[in-house]
Amino acid sequence: MLSSLGNALKKGFDKIAGAIFIDRKTIESVVKELQRALIQADVNVYLVKELGDRIKKAAENEKIKGIEKKEHLIKVLHDEILALIGGEKKELNIKKAEQNKIMLLGLYGAGKTTTTAKLASYYSKRGFKTAVLGLDVHRPAASDQLEQLGNQTKTKTFVNKYEKNPIKIYEQYKKELGDYDLIIIDTAGRHSLDKELIREITELEKKIKPNYVLLTIQADIGQAAKQQASDFQKACNINGIIITRMDSTAKAGGALTACSETKAPVYFIGTGEKINDFETFNPKSFISRLLGLGDLEGLLEKVESAVDQKSQKKLKEKLEQGEFNLRDLQQQLKQMKGIGSLSKIAEMIPGLGKAKIPENLLGTQEDKMKKWEHAIDSMTEQEINDPEIIEKQTSRLNRIAKGSGTTTSDIRQLIKQYKLLKEMTQGTAGLSDIDPSQGLSQKQMQKLAKKFGKKMRM
Ligand code: GDP
Ligand code: MG
Fold this sequence. Notes:
By secondary structure, the protein is an alpha/beta fold. The chain is flat and about 70 Å long. It folds into 3 domains: 3-84, SRP54, nucleotide-binding domain (Four Helix Bundle (Hemerythrin (Met), subunit A)); 100-295, P-loop containing nucleotide triphosphate hydrolases (Rossmann fold, 3-Layer(aba) Sandwich); 307-452, Orthogonal Bundle (434 Repressor (Amino-terminal Domain)). It has helices at 3-18, 24-40, 45-59, 66-85, 112-124, 142-153, 166-177, 195-208, 225-235, 252-261, 283-290, 296-306, 309-321, 326-335, 342-348, 359-362, 366-377, 381-385, 388-392, 394-404, 408-427, 442-452, and strands at residues 100-105, 130-135, 156-158, 182-187, 212-218, 240-244, 266-270, 278-280. Helix 10 links the parallel strand 6 and strand 7. Helix 4 crosses helix 22 (442-452). The protein binds guanosine-5'-diphosphate (GDP) and magnesium ion. Magnesium ion is lined by residues 112-113, 136, 142.
């Protein structure tokens, strides 16, 4: 996601922290690089220009000098990007004490149906008695798709393949829906926001009275998201946005910034096709992840959906202390099935930002993770505690490979990756006290400046 923007920001920090003097030339080159990356991410040129001007202006402030100036500039850079993508985190206000309804809108292919299932799964894991209601009467296969997803997530799903009037479907199930805390409603899309769609949505809104009407937009459309969101805002009462397919486009920055220009906040982002590829959108932690500072909060939120509370707490402690053994890796592999590739997990561990992870580790996908899991199963306690003895004795290597249906090179690779992972979590344990939700304090800014800035000479 947006790796070129992350790299440009990192380079900017690096340049500022490493410069002997912060002169106009340094600032110009930092701003230029950042602007190029923003334009590449499809952020509106005017916004990009304004951002550049503000950074330059902050740099010209003569009152702040020396190290303070560097910290100040790093903070300005950070805060400008933060403001650009939405500032403070906003959360849906869903209460268990009353019935809540969330209705999803959007054009064809925006990700409504997938997101309906993702939302349902997200909230049922958090203890809400959740049901899904399918009101897409336009696509013949829509109710099947929703039912399949419902089976997969074990969510009660109400559909009616034969009824062509969505209001009637709602009325048919209204009484049964009364048993649920939260109803997620999937609706029909169109190729564009036409009169018929507006009429259908307005009627549904009037009848169902949802607490939230959320617009689903695919990130691929980049800054065009602004027009689409404001059109929907004018025609229907949308009060929030979910951006899908953040994973599949370089234009995600455009979509994010475009939405932050409208009054509807981005509440969630979709980051893949799987049910768990879904997270609340928190601009601060999004940026710390861009910068490779890791996002413990985001990781834990995902882990929460796959792992029980107790082992989650343990994992947090282990990660924070930089202790992480082969057994932990195995447990993680077991529990994190469904989260996707190792790169997704790594992106969220503090200090394991993309920039530092070797390509071969990033490419590690689920099939390999499964092999590793089996391989660790075939190891003795001694081997798990001290994997190096496996590397030293070919007989051990052969035994494990045979026992787990893997190859010796699989196992060598596993040990190598584990060592790398361990090294990295240890090396960066000190940075994990950055709480992404709180942003960066003055002290953390210093730490950051140090991390990027070799020696700070003034
Ligand atoms: P709808 O027409 O608005 O209901 O859209 P669907 O939910 O059917 O989604 C359209 C396509 O986008 C499907 O192939 C989904 O698997 C895919 N999709 C949805 N959300 C995401 C996402 O966050 N990432 C990726 N890569 N694909 C997604
Ligand atoms: Mg659909």
